Amino acid sequence: MEEYCVVTFHITQHALMFEKVMKELEYPVKLMPVPRQISSSCGTAAKIPCEKKEEILKLCNERQLPTEGFYKIEHKKKRSWF
Amino acid sequence: MDGKRKMFISGGIIGLIATILMKFGNPGNMGFCIACFYRDIAGALGLHRAPVVQYIRPEIIGFIFGAFIIAIAKGDFKPRGGSSPFIRFFLGFFLVIGALMFLGCPLRMILRLANGDLNALTGLIGYLVGIFVGIQFLKKGYTLGRSTEQAKISGYITPAIALVLLIFLLVKPAFIFFSTEGPGSMAAPIALSLIAGIIVGIVLQRSRICTAGGFRDAMLIRDYHFLWGILGIFLVNLIANLVLNFQSFNLGFVGQPIAHNSHLWNFLGMVLAGICSVLLGGCPVRQTILASEGDTDAGITILGVIVGAAFAHNFGLASSGEGPTTNGKIAVIIGLIVVLTTAYSIVKQANQIRYEKKEGVNNA
User: Fold this and answer.
1) Is the dihedral of CA B69, B13, B100, B345 positive or negative?
2) Which of B71, B146, B226 lies at the smallest CB-CB distance from A33?
3) What is the CATH number of the domain that holds A19?
4) How many structural domains does chain A have?
5) Share of chain B above pLDDT 70, in %
6) If you average pLDDT over residues B166-192, what whole number do you get?
7) Who is most buried in A44, B54, B124, B289, counting CB within 10 A?
8) Which residue among A40, A79, A81 sits closest to B208, beta carbon to beta carbon?
9) Which of A32, A45, A13 is nearest to B144 (CA)?
10) Residue A76: pLDDT band by 50, 70, 90 thresholds?
């Protein structure tokens, strides 16, 4: 079972700002489409390691990085086609 | 199954069905064409009177039903709206002006390319340039604002319109126009088109495939998830065309069905379509699916597309096999100016607000 966490944003620019700051601080971050499990929209989210959640959320607060939500994604082994 | 393969197969189903629809009577390289289909619907409703492009395309009705039903079943149906609907209307309006300059929405562009029409390559380059331009605005803070939850009934309006269209199609009242010649008269049987539309609507809703989103993510965040879907549409459609429609496969620029080879205007038309698609957050097919799952902003966008398509024929803006019209060229230029001005103004205002907020914090 693969597990990861994502941060979502209201607008694309916020995702890019988030990525820039996290990369500067050498956090492993990767931008990706919002996972299907969260939403039927096709915006941009940032994939981050779940164990860094608290640190990252604190950082966002300090640096005034606007975010929308925080989600944990669990891939079940048996996935239906839909 | 991993995401890429799922995307590729989803796209492949769309590509295959497009070939089948063409085989059974849809116009050349027009298994699907969202811009053309809305244009045909506008014509059938008498919003324009170009006699060769009037038909209530069952594929559109199917898309809406398919996406609506699966969205309800899977809990994706969420009536919402209020994200700059008026701006979206005009982005939809100019999107279709650009698409009808080229003679096809981005989806048909891929299908044209997969049947050998190299004019679609010029269109594709234009579309990519348009997406690139749109991305620059996204990077600078472009947004149409958040949508909020709306009354449940608002989400049922799009499927209700589809139902009314289906009744018109079956009952054929005297006030509905049906082409007796030209592309509007060429169509696969109603039941086949409808079922094909429903299947593709379901696939599109689940996979979220979007031509604009695929190229946008590849350029903006180097993510190729949705691009696999586009590749699936192209490759499967190409192979299926070679097997099932070999006599119509024609590699080159000349003699292509419902196309012209004015390179500059194919290019510029799709630049306009690309910019509008990125600014809207999705190409016409994606807007149709979003509207079906309760997004009333996408519903307004579709109204913009239908009205734009009607104007395109009333004012002689749409191209034909003979090439673009002078009016069409002027309209595309105006469209480019209008959408760029709109996007620039939004970005400028957004940055102004952010700047003032920061100032406020510093002074506090």
Assistant:
1) positive
2) B226
3) 3.30.70
4) 1
5) 98
6) 98
7) B289
8) A40
9) A13
10) low
